[in-house]
Amino acid sequence: MLSKEEIKRYCKQILLPHVGIKGQQKLSEASVLVIGSGGLGCPVLQYLSAAGVGSIGIVDFDIVDETNLQRQVLYSNNDVGNLKAEVAASKISELNPFISVIAFTEKFNTSNAEAILSKFDIVVDCTDNFESRYLINDICVIMNKPFVYGGIYKFEGQVSVFNYNNSATYRCAFPESETSQNSADCNIVGVIGTLPGIIGTYQANEVIKIILGINSVCSNKILLINTLSLAMNEIKISRNENNWGSFAKSIEQFRDKIYSY
Amino acid sequence: MKILFFGVLADVCGVNEILVEHITDIDALKIDLKNKYPLLDNYNFQVVVNSERVSTNVSLNSNDEVAFLPPFAGG
Questions:
Q1: With an 8 Å Cβ cutoff, is B56 touching chain A?
Q2: For residue A115, what are the CA distances in angstroms to A29, A81, A108, A109, A129?
Q3: Which CATH number fits domain B2-69: 2.40.10.270, 3.90.930.12, 3.10.20.30, 3.40.50.300?
Q4: A127, A151, A205, A210: least surrounded by Cβ within 10 Å?
C-alpha cells in the first residue's frame, strides 16, 4: 500500500489515467537492474528513482573520473575517485527515500550475472561495449527478462526493448559478424552530454511503460534518433533464432562462455 | 533509390545519404557501394529496406529506401 506521503509525492503522475494509484503501486512493486551507470545510466537512474520504482539495482565497477562529469550528471566534483555504483546509489536514495537501492561494484560477468539478475524483473543495458551487450542479451533470454537497450555514437542514438513478450532480441537485430564491430565508445569518438541524456531518458520511459503495462512498448523495432539533423527513424525487426550465432542456450553454456568482441 | 548511412558508416562514406540508379538487388547494391567506399568492407552493418531489416538478398525498386545500420557500442 502506498503511504499518504507517497501519494502526494507522485500525484502529478498519478493524475494520468495511464498511471493512477494502481500504476503507482506497480511502480513501487517493480524491480529494475541498471547495468552501467555512465552517460546512459545516470538519466535512467534519476528518472526511475524519481518515478518511484521500488527496487533499483546498479551495476558498475568503474570509478568517477573528471572526464565523466560533462555527461554523467549524477556525479559532482567531490565524487571523483569514488565508485560510480556507490555514489549513484547514494544520490538516488537521497532523491527518493521511499525506494530501495542496491549497488553492485563489480563487472557484470558470466559468474555473477545469474545471481544479480534473479532479484530483478527488468534490465536496462547502459553499457558501452559489445561484449557486455551480447552477455546481457544471453542471460536475459535465458532467464526470460525484458531488457531495454540504448546505444550511442557521436550524435546518433538507438533505443529498443528486447526480449519483451517473446519479441526480437539484440542478436536478432545485430547478429555477430566476423568483420569489425566498431566498438568505438564515447571516450574515443567524443560525445556531448545531451545525447546520452536523451537516449537514457527514452530508456527510462520504456521501462516505465513496461511496468505500467502500456502497450506501445518499443519492441520489435529500433528507434534511431539523430540529434544533429533531428531525424527520427524506426526500423522493424523480428525475432529470428537463426540469427543468434553463438548464443548461450542454457545457463550452463552461459557460465562457460567467453564473451569477447 | 535513396541510400542512408547511419553511425560510423556515415563517417566512413563521408555522407549521410546518396542516390543510386540501376541497382536491382541488395547484393548488387553492396558491390556497388563497396566499390565506391572500399572501407565499408571493414564494418559490420545490417541492411534495412523501407524501414524493415532484411537478412537475405531481396530485389530492389527505384523508389525503395535502403539504410545501412551498424550497432552502437557507446553508452
A1: no
A2: 20, 28, 10, 11, 22
A3: 3.10.20.30
A4: A205
CA distance A205 to A217: 9
Nearest-neighbour CA in chain A from B17: distance (Å): 12
For residue A163, give the amino acid letter: N
Put simply, the answer to whether B74 touches A189 (Cβ < 8 Å) is yes
Distance CA A210, CA A215 (A): 8
Residue A42's φ and ψ, nearest 5 degrees, are -60, -55
State pTM to two decimals: 0.96
User: Partners of A145 in the beta sheet?
Assistant: none
The three cell numbers of residue B18 are: 546518396
d(CA B33, CA A218): 31
Chain A residues close to B11, C-beta within 8 Å:
154
What's the pLDDT tens digit per position in A9-46? 999 999 999 999 999 999 999 999 999 999 999 999 99
Question: Which chain A residue shows the shortest CA-CA distance from B12?
Answer: A182
A122: left (phi over 0), alpha (psi -120 to 50) or beta: beta
**Which of A42, A72, A182, A230 is most worth mutating to test chain B (most B CB atoms within 10 A of its CB)?**
A182
Q: pLDDT category, A180, cuts 50, 70, 90?
A: low
Helix, strand, coil shares of chain A, percent, nearest 5, are: 40, 20, 40
| ipTM confidence score | 0.93
Cβ atoms B23, B60 nearer than 8 A: yes
Measure Cα distances from A82 to A36, A113, A161, A174 in Å: 15, 23, 31, 34
All structural domains of chain A, each given as residue ranges with its CATH number in brackets, are 4-256 (3.40.50.720)
